Amino acid sequence: MLTNLLLKIATKGNTNYKNKKIRNNVGFLSGIVGIIVNVTLFVLKLIVGIVVSSVAVTADAFNNLSDAASSIITIIGFKMASKPADRDHPYGHGRIEYISALIISFMVMLVGFQFIKTSINRIMNPEPVAFEWIPFILLAVSIIFKLWLGIFNRSLGNKIDSSSLKATATDAIGDVFITSVVVISLFASRFTAFPIDGYIGVLVALFILYAGYSLTKETLSPLIGDAPDKELIKEVENSLLSYNHITGVHDLIIHNYGPGRTMASIHAEIPANIDIMTIHEVIDRAEREISKNLDLHLVIHMDPISVDTEEVAEVKNEVNKIIKYNPFIKSMHDFRVVGKGDKKNLIFDIVVDTINLDKVSSEDQLKDDISSAIHDINPQYNCIITVDKHY
């Protein structure tokens, strides 16, 4: 209920989360709430850590301080990512959001390394931990706040599809586990003189390092260029195939320049004998409508396909039979016959799944095998084959 109330205040009741202004407001909300909660928890845990002389509690306190700094970076990241496109950055600044998430992950790892050192020193030079009920209860209550913060950021991250907020949520949920372990170790110190505090400090630091590593891995992927969402691929292809005269699609390429800044290009197969003005109107309309519906910028390339002659239909059917029995080939497209007389060229593309590329001796060998099989049936045809990779 509190999440919905804060969200309603930040967006003034507007639920169009694809709108850049609304999206930025949600990002700012996450950052401000994160700063307030994490600074409060830092002060609380630092006082508790000093009172009970626990390095594990102190480590957890500074982990919260790094989370507060992360929230500041989140706000800065959203602010910079919202800058409009310019001459030097024609596709906008959306990827800054990924960079801010990467900085957050590095800060988390830095805290982890620092407290491994501190905790090992505590193991080598143990000091007694003074258990007291009030600090113990305060730590237990802090778990509830961190759990809510994780759920809060996860909800916001899902609404605006933000890797930065999802990373922050993951970090917060990890902190719930870390603080829980610290609370258990603090309680256990009542019953043993064993320097459990130092060992728990190392454990906490390792969890912090793992959280930082996971965040780094998640945020590097879109910066390097990860594979597009399979559902988005299906939506683009199925949407385009729903238009009149579009008989096939292939070579879909999707580039992500940050949330809400996706560009895509695709080849659409059309009958070669169709009126050019008619199909141009269809392609233009498809580009506009699909771009709007899927919140991306789509460019469609037309591939005229001759399918109205008996020769083309017959030889295409023969080629389909040949590639059907090759387990490495997913599909064929852009099939056409060029030339006259006894010597003609068969020009087409085949699609090979990347997971099978290592099983293919070479692309040239694959093309030679197909060409030989076709030549055995129809010696008059020379094959010109292009191998496309399906990712």
From TrEMBL:
<dbReference type="InterPro" id="IPR002524">
    <property type="entry name" value="Cation_efflux"/>
</dbReference>
<feature type="transmembrane region" description="Helical">
    <location>
        <begin position="98"/>
        <end position="116"/>
    </location>
</feature>
<keyword id="KW-1133">Transmembrane helix</keyword>
<keyword id="KW-0812">Transmembrane</keyword>
<dbReference type="InterPro" id="IPR036837">
    <property type="entry name" value="Cation_efflux_CTD_sf"/>
</dbReference>
<dbReference type="InterPro" id="IPR050291">
    <property type="entry name" value="CDF_Transporter"/>
</dbReference>
<dbReference type="Pfam" id="PF01545">
    <property type="entry name" value="Cation_efflux"/>
</dbReference>
<keyword id="KW-0472">Membrane</keyword>
<feature type="transmembrane region" description="Helical">
    <location>
        <begin position="198"/>
        <end position="215"/>
    </location>
</feature>
<dbReference type="GO" id="GO:0016020">
    <property type="term" value="C:membrane"/>
</dbReference>
<feature type="transmembrane region" description="Helical">
    <location>
        <begin position="172"/>
        <end position="192"/>
    </location>
</feature>
<dbReference type="InterPro" id="IPR027469">
    <property type="entry name" value="Cation_efflux_TMD_sf"/>
</dbReference>
<dbReference type="InterPro" id="IPR027470">
    <property type="entry name" value="Cation_efflux_CTD"/>
</dbReference>
<comment type="similarity">
    <text>Belongs to the cation diffusion facilitator (CDF) transporter (TC 2.A.4) family.</text>
</comment>
<feature type="domain" description="Cation efflux protein cytoplasmic">
    <location>
        <begin position="228"/>
        <end position="304"/>
    </location>
</feature>
<dbReference type="Pfam" id="PF16916">
    <property type="entry name" value="ZT_dimer"/>
</dbReference>
<dbReference type="GO" id="GO:0008324">
    <property type="term" value="F:monoatomic cation transmembrane transporter activity"/>
</dbReference>
<dbReference type="InterPro" id="IPR058533">
    <property type="entry name" value="Cation_efflux_TM"/>
</dbReference>
<keyword id="KW-0813">Transport</keyword>
<feature type="transmembrane region" description="Helical">
    <location>
        <begin position="128"/>
        <end position="151"/>
    </location>
</feature>
<feature type="transmembrane region" description="Helical">
    <location>
        <begin position="26"/>
        <end position="55"/>
    </location>
</feature>
<protein>
    <submittedName>
        <fullName>Cation diffusion facilitator family transporter</fullName>
    </submittedName>
</protein>
<feature type="domain" description="Cation efflux protein transmembrane">
    <location>
        <begin position="32"/>
        <end position="223"/>
    </location>
</feature>
